[in-house]
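Q: For a teaching session next week I want to show students how multiple molecules come together into a single three-dimensional assembly. I've collected the sequence lines for a complex. Could you give me the predicted structure tokens for the whole thing so I can convert them for display?
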Amino acid sequence: MKNYTKQEIVEFEKRYRTNFVNSLWGFKSVNLVGTISAEGFTNLAIFSQVVHLGASPALVGLIVRPAETDRHTYTYMKEVGDFTLNHLHKDIIRQGHQTSARYAKGRSEFEATGLSPIWSDEIKSPYVKESRMRIGCKYVDEMTIKQNGTILVVGSVEEVWVDEEAVQKDGFINLESIGTITCSNLDSYHETKKLTRLSYAKPDQPLTEL
Amino acid sequence: MKNYTKQEIVEFEKRYRTNFVNSLWGFKSVNLVGTISAEGFTNLAIFSQVVHLGASPALVGLIVRPAETDRHTYTYMKEVGDFTLNHLHKDIIRQGHQTSARYAKGRSEFEATGLSPIWSDEIKSPYVKESRMRIGCKYVDEMTIKQNGTILVVGSVEEVWVDEEAVQKDGFINLESIGTITCSNLDSYHETKKLTRLSYAKPDQPLTEL
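A: Of course. Below is the structure for the complete assembly, covering every listed component.
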């Protein structure tokens, strides 16, 4: 195994370092975040920095970068108070990835990519019609990570839309059955194949497959 | 698609809700976190709540639950000041999952699961020898999410150990080549198959495959 020191990583060429460091954490969830401004401009952005914060109440964390050039998502979710998360699947990878282009304010990524907004009574922000798992969240709070100015947005789950067949008897959602994909780095998309699901672990007791 | 309201989710039976909500965010990275106490007790714990916070400097976030019964990982990383992240692959899924059992303090998950500690000069905490990607981090800071008492630990990357062949010319790390797997919910493990890697998106320009 090769050892990369902190100093070497700091001295990497910028683009190389971005790829390297973004690859370190393994495969990530990938969601399209839908928002709308107070004026009614819709926005859609691909996010791989989403993290589970709790099940009761159901809370999610979104990491928003401090770069100021394209923060429509962040601005709009604060303005209006909610946002949507929409899983990516095989057939909408290119449209999803294209939402990361820096469109001018007022130019909707829905229009630019051909993805369709769909609305719900609970949430003002648009969902992605093509997505097979959609989660409506309220903006609840935020915290700034002082080391680099990055923001953790805390959201609460207000509603979920998903194919009922995907929800198993114990509440587990079979993400493969709805084609949810995963990503690595900022640009590589992968489908998955289940290896195993294991029982709740207890000391000195054998695990069983669920 | 079926609609689940916030009220329905709140009223789910506890175990059902845990499965349902932990499934919402898609596939997640899965790492074994290695730590050591000031007294020299080693600890290993499986974590799916790891999030990229920045590339320059390289920062990672770990979500630590407020549940107090088993916080050896959190206690030790604060005590000693560092921790390791070790990717999971196919051959060590069962051992990795078994680390989530609630072992008494002083009983090392390394011993209990048969995974081997390996040491570096840079970091006091143990790495997992069987892992094919190992990241040494310093504990830098923490913030409490007041809505549920969950803690975001901020760590800085001090060194990386990885098969050199996995690191491509542009810094992208081919995680499939080192067998890194992904998880959904808290107990389901999946291998991946690359679908595509796409070029940097710009408005009104076609994407190309990398």
